[in-house]
């Protein structure tokens, strides 16, 4: 048989086979190409914004700040330490802040540096003495704390891992006037977040720089996280955040349609 004839024969047999398959609807084992999964509808990115956080036990100064910043419809998260020493008046003011929509969170029972404490006494002792009693004491007074900020920003991954059993979010700290693109102070859909300091004694204390971060957040759908301490009119000591600066940040946020989030709000965001 010539090569040409052989080709004709193969073609003929193929045609017959196809005819039989089609005519009798014979199923074949030829795998069908998988149906492409429906593309998940991409969620709209959340509204860019900022998280203002304040640490320690300066309830009176925060109460004053609330009065001054209410017209801006601001929102903050207050990380509390040394709660067992709070007076009745301080507790009432903290309740007032909570009632005004702020988030009340934890910062250690005795404000121990977590890394140093763990090195000396171990992780179990840290949780037993710094976390559990704080949560219990505050819970008893109606403060269900859901997040935590490390005193001195001192943290490590073992601590994060352990404390995330007790809290939804843990806040560390970050420093320096880095390019907005290189900053670490944005919410990145993670449960460990980093705030940038806005007290007057920090090296990066600079309203224009803070505004540049907010603008970057606006353009890239991000949320900036700041932290301060004692909110005062005239900041001239360590750990003081000028209320004037906060007013300017609040006004700038409003102008640029940046939303105020509490730390607790972050878990409601789709990611
Ligand atoms: Zn502190």
Automatic annotation (TrEMBL):
PROSITE patterns: NODB (PS51677)
TM helices/strands, residue ranges: 7-24
Primary location: secreted
GO molecular function, one term: hydrolase activity, acting on carbon-nitrogen (but not peptide) bonds
UniProt keyword list: Membrane, Signal, Transmembrane, Transmembrane helix
Cellular component terms (Gene Ontology): extracellular region
Pfam families listed in its UniProt record: Polysacc_deac_1 (PF01522)
GO biological process: carbohydrate metabolic process
Record carries keyword Transmembrane helix: yes
Gene3D superfamilies tied to this protein: Glycoside hydrolase/deacetylase
Compartments reported by the entry: Secreted
Name of the protein in its database record: DUF2334 domain-containing protein
Organism of this sequence: Flavobacterium cupreum
Upper classification of the organism: Bacteria, Pseudomonadati, Bacteroidota, Flavobacteriia, Flavobacteriales
């Amino acid at each position: 048989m010539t090569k040409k004839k052989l080709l004709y024969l193969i073609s003929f047999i193929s045609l017959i086979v196809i005819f039989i398959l089609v005519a009798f609807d014979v199923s074949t084992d030829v795998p069908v190409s998988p149906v492409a999964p429906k593309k998940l509808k991409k969620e709209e990115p959340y509204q860019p914004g900022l998280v203002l956080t304040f640490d320690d036990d300066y309830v009176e100064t925060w109460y004053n700040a609330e009065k001054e910043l209410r017209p801006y419809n601001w929102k903050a998260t207050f990380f509390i330490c040394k709660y067992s020493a709070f007076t009745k008046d301080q507790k009432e003011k903290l309740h007032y802040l909570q009632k005004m929509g702020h988030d009340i969170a934890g910062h250690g029972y005795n404000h121990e540096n977590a890394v140093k404490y763990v090195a000396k006494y171990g992780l179990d002792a840290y949780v037993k003495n710094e976390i559990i009693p704080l949560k219990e004491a505050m819970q008893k007074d109606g403060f269900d704390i859901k997040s935590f900020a490390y005193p001195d920003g001192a943290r490590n991954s073992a601590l994060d891992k352990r404390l995330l059993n007790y809290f939804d979010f843990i806040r560390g700290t970050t420093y320096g006037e880095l390019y907005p693109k290189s900053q670490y102070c944005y919410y990145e859909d993670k449960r460990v977040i980093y705030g940038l300091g806005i007290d007057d004694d920090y090296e990066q204390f600079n309203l224009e720089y803070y505004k540049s971060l907010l603008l970057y957040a606006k353009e890239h759908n991000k949320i900036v996280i700041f932290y301060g301490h004692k909110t005062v009119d005239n900041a001239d000591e360590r750990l003081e955040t000028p209320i004037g600066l906060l007013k300017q940040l609040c006004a700038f946020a409003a102008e640029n349609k940046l939303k105020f989030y509490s730390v607790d709000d972050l878990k409601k965001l789709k990611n």
